[in-house]
Design goal:
Dehydroquinate synthase-like, alpha domain, binds zinc ion, Rossmann fold, 15 helices, two-stranded antiparallel ribbon, alpha/beta, 357 residues, six-stranded parallel beta sheet
Length: 357
């Protein structure tokens, strides 16, 4: 029973927010405009080659002083803590550029040091670049750890458009998972097991509308990529507003966490949650199941996943494990008949037959 009093709480939102073309060069200017000249820079593997020249040209032209620069491959909490507390005192801001690891490393370092963090994602594969949590390893296991929402987010659509399709499909999968996450949250709140935030849920629904209502479903279309970027960003902010990951993560994320544990080779986060969201929407009798199926068909998500389908034995194992992953976290998978119903859908639904083999 959730019986803490309802009060207004302080919500952090990104103060610096730039999404558009040619933004990499401008990062230096954005930082100087905010009086942040001493930069500790954390890059993903391959990021230097991708954006390094443009970034440093902008830094040079604006008098940015790079006080620390590191390529991130180890995201253990021990190594982050050690690095963070050794950063020089001239550090004004921590900038993370890359995919998940560099951003999580930089975000958590900034959280430890109470320094502003500027998040510069080079792909749109999930909503982690603007969320209040970091995905780190603790004792060798992947854990979601509380952090602070970024002070700034800069997305260069010229960089993002060069990503291979898998990153866009993963982002789409992470976005549609809000449909099932929101339904699980609402049901948990109806049962008085969770506190609900109307505003956070409105934000999350609006972030979905951006993807559903507009334009073409061509993942290569600039307007689609812009909408996907904005949607994922809003999803991150919805978590901050809610004070919980509930608006962005429900039964479908539990299945994905379980797949990470049981699979010989786990797939990209958003491919797992997107596939699981389709299944969970049917389990929930979710009124948006048709829209969800529609967007995943039209964008080519289903075709993409079916080229490298999930292994059925692993998926079923994950399905059994999923409700155990977070105890006292109510989702549709907490219902006693869910496993059997899910197996029926996996066996009988024409789309799922292609995704899970
Ligand atoms: Zn996610």
């Amino acid at each position: 029973m959730y019986n803490l009093p309802y009060t207004n709480k302080q919500i952090n939102i990104p103060y610096l927010l730039k999404i558009g073309n040619g933004k990499t060069y401008k990062i230096g200017k954005y930082l100087i405009d905010k009086n942040l000249s001493g930069v500790a820079l954390f890059l993903g593997e391959g990021t230097e080659e991708l954006v390094g020249a443009e970034l440093r040209r902008g830094f040079g032209d604006n008098g940015i002083n790079v006080v620390h620069c590191q390529v991130v491959n180890d995201i253990s909490i021990e190594s982050i803590t050690q690095t963070a507390f050794q950063l020089p005192p001239e550090t004004d801001v921590i900038v993370g550029i890359g995919g998940g690891k560099a951003l999580d490393f930089a975000k958590y370092s900034a959280h430890l040091l109470r320094l502003p963090f500027v998040s510069v994602p080079t792909s749109t594969s999930n909503d982690g670049f603007c969320s209040p949590t970091s995905s780190l390893t603790v004792d060798g296991k992947r854990k979601t750890v509380k952090s602070s929402i970024p002070f700034g987010v800069v997305m260069d659509l010229d960089v993002i458009k060069s990503c291979p399709p898998i990153f866009f499909y993963s982002g789409i999968g992470d976005m549609v998972s809000k449909i099932t996450a929101l339904a699980d949250w609402k049901e948990a709140a109806n049962r008085k097991l969770e506190r609900y935030s109307d505003f956070a849920s409105m934000l999350a629904y609006n972030s979905l509308d951006l993807l559903f209502i507009k334009h073409s479903y061509d993942i290569n279309a600039p307007e689609f990529q812009r909408s996907l970027s904005t949607s994922l960003l809003m999803s991150g902010i919805a978590m901050e507003v809610a004070g919980t990951s509930r608006p962005a993560s429900g039964s479908e994320h539990l299945i994905s966490h379980a797949l990470d544990e049981v699979s010989v080779r786990p797939q990209m986060h958003g491919l797992q949650v997107g596939t699981a969201a389709y299944l969970c929407a049917m389990l929930q009798n979710n009124p948006s199941t048709d829209s969800l199926r529609d967007i995943l068909s039209k964008t080519g998500f289903f075709d993409f996943v079916s080229q490298n389908p999930f292994k059925k034995d692993e998926f079923l194992q994950a399905l059994r494990l999923a409700p155990e992953i977070k105890r006292s976290f109510y989702t549709v998978l907490s219902e006693p008949d869910s496993y059997n119903r899910a197996v029926e859908f996996i066996n009988d639904d024409e789309i799922l037959q292609k995704l899970i083999k």
